[in-house]
Specification:
alpha/beta, Rossmann fold, five-stranded antiparallel beta sheet, 15 helices, elongated, NagB/RpiA_transferase-like, DNA binding
Length: 320
């Protein structure tokens, strides 16, 4: 086709596409207007999409994908899975997943529940998106990690308690201490002891997932190189609420746990409903490790992370 002919063809495709997609005119009406058959109109519209003249974007950011949620729930053998569409970069994905988790929390939390909250950027996004909660007690699951007050577990609990109007029980102390003796001493402090005593009463917990390989973990960042090296030697893959887990879902870092002000693995396992919230396919191995551990009963993730999890076996392949 000559240059003039190709230009005329492109102008026709564009005109037909504009009438169909923007002006909402039927194919029959467009055919009458341009002197074309309905089948010719259909072929031109197909060309408009295949050549990129027309692109279609589905804005499903933050909206549930029910079929994918059901597939993931069955694959991971969990009680609940919520998969949502996301658009944009990592920050926007966390905001959309956090918004979905906030809606789930609002819809399912009831009077008499005791809510436990860990730290993490997705949990921070969740509490930022919260609009209301029933009047429940809220308990901080770990001490403080890092120096960023906007993502501090204390700030997470404070923000959520403002939506609930219930009592907030914070831990104004670091998550990781230098030695077990210092941690034991802090556990005896009245305000810390009061919060820790509530761990056995928690009915619902929302937690984030930290990844060690690849390194996407705030806890890992505040550890000494020696501590990191020892835990990596033990095969740590993920952490949730300060609990360290290897790729098979086995607990590691038991000596480290004695230096932490946080809910224990046994206490977390006893919580009736534990919801992990995560975004990004890079966290797939960490989320799978936490799921294999049996510490969580529910998951809120974005579509990219869900698809990465579906491509992995729920149980690790046995050694040859």
């Amino acid at each position: 086709m000559s240059g003039d002919g190709a230009l005329a063809e492109r102008r026709l495709i564009t005109s037909v596409a504009r009438r169909f997609y923007l002006d909402d005119i039927s194919k029959v009406q467009i055919g009458q207007e341009f002197g074309l058959s309905r089948f010719k109109v259909a072929r031109l519209l197909e060309q408009a999409r295949s050549t990129g003249i027309v692109t279609i974007t589905l804005d499903d950011g933050g909206l549930p994908d029910d079929p994918l949620s059901a597939r993931l729930r069955e694959h991971l053998q969990l009680a609940e899975c919520l998969v949502v569409g996301t658009h944009g970069g990592d920050v926007e994905a966390r905001r959309q997943v956090g918004g979905a988790a906030a809606a789930l929390l609002t819809d399912t939390l009831g009077d008499g529940d005791v809510l436990g909250l860990a730290w993490g950027r997705t949990i921070t996004a969740m509490t930022t998106e919260l609009r209301s909660l029933p009047p429940v007690s809220i308990v901080q699951l770990t001490g403080v990690v890092g120096a960023d007050l906007t993502e501090s577990p204390v700030e997470v609990v404070r923000r959520a308690s403002r939506r609930a109007g219930g009592q907030a029980h914070a831990i104004f102390a670091p998550l990781l201490l230098h030695d077990a003796a210092t941690a034991a001493g802090l556990r005896r402090q009245p305000d810390v002891a009061q919060a820790l005593a509530l761990f056995s009463r928690i009915t619902v917990a929302f937690v984030a997932v930290g990844s060690w390989d690849p390194p996407i973990s705030q806890l890992r960042e505040v550890m000494t190189p020696e501590d990191r090296a020892e835990l990596e030697r033990q095969g740590v893959q993920a952490e949730v609420a300060g609990v360290l887990i290897d790729a098979d879902g086995t607990l590691v870092g038991r000596e480290m746990a004695e230096r932490c002000l946080s809910i224990t693995a046994a206490q977390l396992a006893a919580v009736p409903r534990v919801v992990a919230v995560a975004a990004g396919a890079a966290k797939a191995a960490a989320v799978m490790a936490v799921t294999r551990s049996g510490l969580i009963s529910a998951l809120v993730v974005d579509r990219a992370l869900a698809e990465a999890l579906l491509a992995m076996p729920f149980r690790a392949d046995p050694p040859a």
